[in-house]
Structure of Pirin family protein:
Amino acid sequence: MKLEKHPSSSRGFANHGWLQASHSFSFANWYDPNKIQFGALRVLNDDVIAPSMGFSTHPHQNMEIITIPLSGLLKHKDNMANDWLYVKPNEVQVMSAGTGVYHSEMNGSVKDRLNLFQIWILPNKEGVTPRYNQQAFNPEERKNKQQILVSPINSELEGLKIHQDAQISRLDLDANQEFTYHVKSDNHGVYLMNISGDIIVEEETLTTRDAIGVSNTQEFKIQAHTNSELLMIEVPM
């Protein structure tokens, strides 16, 4: 088993005034040669966006883009005939950029900040027709059990679909609970972001916003010291 712990303090950080962005992997003006990607996972940004502010229309191509609001209200618009759409906490948005898409992302509130994770996963098929989807997930269905949010496009698993043999899930563990994560294959790894709380992954202790990459194993154990929220991104290595 290979474990790579990434304390929250090791992330890149950019303060743009209206945007406070923490980068798990090299992004924009922040570059760390040791943090380019984790397998097919290329970007995991933890963004806090000021009220009524956001990203104006910009392009993407050949990337699977997943957005998970944690608090606040996300407002999205794109050139796939989608006028302004709203994405709330406990909802997930997926966009397959494929041959090319233009979109805008804004804070849909005039008074509250928006906090979200944006994830980019390299696709296993390029040049696909761009597509958009979003879905609501019941938080009760991840209480001490794995809730699949995103899965491969041709799989029978639950969740939104992407063009990659990858899986994104959430898990809310009560204090003193334990969970065993089963990895799909020896060629897959899991990047675990501890959204909040205190946990132990095998022998490594993680506090809020710490992350760990787990690979070269078929399973690993997670123990919660306190009530904890976890995001798990399983990708081909």
User: Anything to note?
Assistant: The radius of gyration is 17 Å.
